[in-house]
Amino acid sequence: MKKLLKYLRDYKKETVLGPLFKLLEASFELFIPLVVASIIDNGIPAGDKAHVLKMCAVLAALALIGLASSLTAQYFAAKASVGFSCKIRHALFAHIQSLSHTELDEIGTSTLITRMTGDINQVQTGVNLTLRLLLRSPFVVFGAMIMAFTVDFQSALIFAAAIPLLAAVVFFIMLVCIPLYKRVQNHLDKVLGITRENLAGSRVIRAFCKEIEETEKFNEENNVLCETQKFVGRISALMNPLTFAIINFAIIALIFTGAVRVNAGNLTQGSVVALYNYMSQILVELIKLANLIINITKSIACGNRIQAVLEIAPSVNDGKGEAPLTRDIAVEFRGVSLKYKNSAENSLTDISFTAKHGETIGVIGGTGSGKTSLISLIPRFYDASCGEVLVDGVNVKNYSQDVLRKKIAVVPQKAVLFKGTIRDNMRWGNENASDDRITEAITLAQGSDIIAKKEAGLDSQIEQGGKNLSGGQRQRLTIARALVKKAEILILDDSSSALDFATDAALRRSIKNLNPPPCVFIVSQRASSIMHADKIIVLDDGIVCGIGTHDSLLKDCEIYREIYSSQFKSEVE
Amino acid sequence: MADSQKHTLRTVLKYIRKYMPQIGVSILLAGITVAMTLYIPVLIGRAIDFIIGEGLVNFWGVIPILYMVGIITALTALLQWIMGIINNRVAYNIVRDIRNDAFRKIEALPLKFIDSHSYGEIISRVIADVDQFSDGLLMGFTQLFTGVVTILGTLFFMFSINAGIAVSVVVLTPLSLLAARFIASKTYSMFKKQSEVRGEQTAFIDEIVGNQKVVKAFSYENRAIEKFDDINNRLEKYSLRAIFFSSITNPSTRFINSLVYACVALLGAFSVISGKITVGGLSCFLSYANQYTKPFNEISGVVTELQNALACAARIFELINEPSEAPDAPAALAEAQGKINIQNVYFSYTPEKKLIENFNFEAFPGQKIAIVGPTGCGKTTLINLLMRFYDVNSGAICIDGTDIREVTRKSLRQNFGMVLQETYLIDGTVMENIAIGKPDATLEEITAAAKAAHAHSFIKRLPNGYDTHISESDSGLSQGEKQLLCISRIMLCLPPMLILDEATSSIDTRTEMKIQDAFKTLMKGRTSFIVAHRLSTIRDADVILVMRDGNVIEQGSHSELLSKKGFYYELYNSQFAD
């Protein structure tokens, strides 16, 4: 949390002035019992109505000054906390943009989204409340005690005893409850988990007639949650009665001492009333303070989680920015191995091959054989743990990431589009792409019918995630998006799975006819998608078990033969 | 109050009724504790009246009063605690009851409802809305009740001390309420604006961070930051306003309360001078003037809170009152032979969009029926109808001559073994996951099933073998491995009819070949429906149904369909084209 405070630096004035004005307000509040005491001691016995009137005017004036300083304080606190959280949000978002795939895998998307939204909001509330109340409440509590000492030393000793006792009770209950609330949260998560499971798996659960068992499981977990909540409730319900009792017993002591001291002539009746009022003020503030501390604890926890994300350094950093060397070989792997973080075994082992400009490279292999890992190394989504990946003759680590990724267009497995017009989406590949260029790319990707069907053409709105398009339409548009880029290297990662065979074939034909011809990588499970490639890389468990053309592999590579025959039975038999 | 709100309220009362005795006790305790809390300042005031000045203190008057205060305090504290416990218990039990009902409903809802609502939305009803409802109910209820009692009690005590001052307090305090109401109405629009922009920002974050890898692939980072900053700056502006204006409520009401306090001090002091009340009475009044305004502020908050609670309750009850699936017919379907008749079936998910129309088909026991066609052509719909996840609009589906609507869903579904495109694992061990359809299976049976599905070898490699804990979200298994587990489930139950929807789509073709062999054995003598993209896997089917836009456009064996040179011919040949 500490390191986040630097984002408050621009709000120094506000962070100092906010609490200061709050203290001002509180100190005016502390004068009120004294004014009332003066009315009782000086105005009433003498029947001095002018004095009473004057004192009441003072009360009203105190209220007005209190209002003014409190409003000022609220404004500064709001400004500082909102500004602070917006700065953190910007910093965190920018930081997430800089992270590479390894970190994204490790942290997870949902975590990042929670950090960006819920956690930052909680921090904002925490800062706001801290600026407003953290100083105020203790100030009023201790201020009341000090004021009591100025009224009467002996009576004030009761305050000195009651306040620590109250604090002990409040903090003890909080200390016990906070971990218990965490347990409640855990149980709630479980209840939520079962609910989600039963929605996502509704077909399976019904197909296997598991409804009754699942309901029983839910009821049981729900009951545990309920019992835990009641248990915490019993403890936290102690807070009000205990503080109430302590304050009232302190008041009893106060009145009794007051009676003795007044009888002895050491104290006036008005002072007793003043002391009584101070005691009442303490209770209110102490409860506020307890709530505040719960809030701050939560905020600090959120702040720490945000800081933890900010402290993660991206593992992929820009190189020096070397100029490309060769113009002949587009991509070369030299003894490349890849081991993902937190995984025990290599995902790729000792891969070497070259791919020339204009060539089409097919990558094929079973589930989990490392196909996607292999192509992820070319745009440097991950760094090879061993060996070198070269693009245009230069190690990818020596490029600046921007330059490298401009050379490469990727069509990911999952067809994702973004909220906005089709044109906006197509311009992801090239900010300044003209409509002609976009239409051309969409036609190449066999998607002209998608545009033709829409009245607004390129201006048609796409909803978040491309929900208003079918899987096949989405996939063709993501291919078009990559083609808009006109990159030297084009990577299609199993990106025709939702296309029927005819469309798939037409797509491959049109890519082949691109001018200038890019170096194309096609990853697929379908032998038909890659069998006409200039070079086919057959992967098995992260190891290359064959590189060559379709014909040579059919002859030499056992695994390729198996894959092929599993899909084209009769031709081999 | 609108009718729908009344209706919601009635449903709420239904849940509360069970706890009426406890609520009655709680109300009684609240009344007692509030009265006693209010009585204490009166007693203290009397005690102060005995403390007049030097040598004039009446200890015999003060001490019994202090004893009394002590006893009342102890009693009040105890009763307060008991009341708190009862309130907690009632609120949490009601939450539990509602959640149980909601969950039972989820298990009984037609799949149509689940398919057409996002999970997040339903979950938020079961979790967040129920929580908010109980918070609102508990807080709202206790605050409303104690607030009203406090106000009435305070009025009573004030009027019993001095009517004049009491009237002035009664007249002045609503001012703070008005101020609060005024500010709230002004801030509402700012909050709305804030939540709009916040929603926009969350959607943007969700989209960009959720697809961060695509963002990187297209070097879109800086453009994303620019767009983000634009939203962020707008949010800063609106948040500042919303937060500042909402935070002026407290100081403003506090200010008005202070003014009331000053008035009471003034009037009170004059009354003391003219001998109408005592100094103790004044002190008591001042302490009431502080307390009296508090419940008003709370009540104005309570009203919004209760309204919010009602809104939440309405959303939950909407779910709970959603019609369940049509009730089961009592008869059970016996172990089926596997003859399936589809007669004049019409079906569509929404009336506007026609899908399956006048579909007729007959499958004989042991036949292998393949369904092919482009994405979205209605292949999955057919399975939804066979499993009775959805009911046909008209026409009938019969198994062994019995309409499937005339038997229990359970008995129908037990006759089908189903492996779907999207796999689903339950939260439990690998063994539990395989044995889902046959919980009493022995380890040998389970292992045999896993071996038949070629899942045994990877299961053995898991940290705890068959006892490894897995769940849908956190399994560490690849999509293909999950699918093998789902196939193992079917291998274990061996039901008389099979539905395999893209069952091997995520499995590499070599493993698939092996599984196909296992399937072949499995399908022998069983009526099977197979949905597949890879046409090579279904060439030996007895009947191939070629679907397009919800209709079966061609039907026949592989060679028949090829010689027809129709849509199937086109589809089949496209996989070899280049």
The helix/strand class of chain A is: alpha/beta
For the largest interface in this structure, which chains are involved and how many residues does each contribute? A-B, 164 and 148 residues
Q: Taking strands numbered 1, 2, ... along the chain, how are they ordered across the largest sheet of chain A? A: 6-9-10-3-11-12
Can you say what the CATH homologous superfamily of the largest domain in chain A is?
Answer: ABC transporter type 1, transmembrane domain
Q: CATH H-level name of the largest domain in chain B... which superfamily? A: P-loop containing nucleotide triphosphate hydrolases
Give the distance, in angstroms, between the N- and C-terminal Cα atoms of chain B.
Answer: 69 Å
Task: Give the averaged pLDDT of chain A, no decimals.
Answer: 82
Residues in helix, % of chain A = 55-70%
CATH topology of the largest domain in chain B: Rossmann fold
- Total DSSP helices of chain B: 20
* Unreliable stretches covering 5 or more consecutive residues of chain A: none
Helix residue percentage of chain B: 55-70%
| Unreliable segments of 5+ consecutive residues of chain B | none
- CATH class group of the largest domain in chain B: Alpha Beta
Silhouette of chain A = elongated
The number of domains of chain A is: 2
CATH architecture of the largest domain in chain B: 3-Layer(aba) Sandwich
- Beta-strand portion of chain A reads 5-15%
Number of strands of chain B: 12
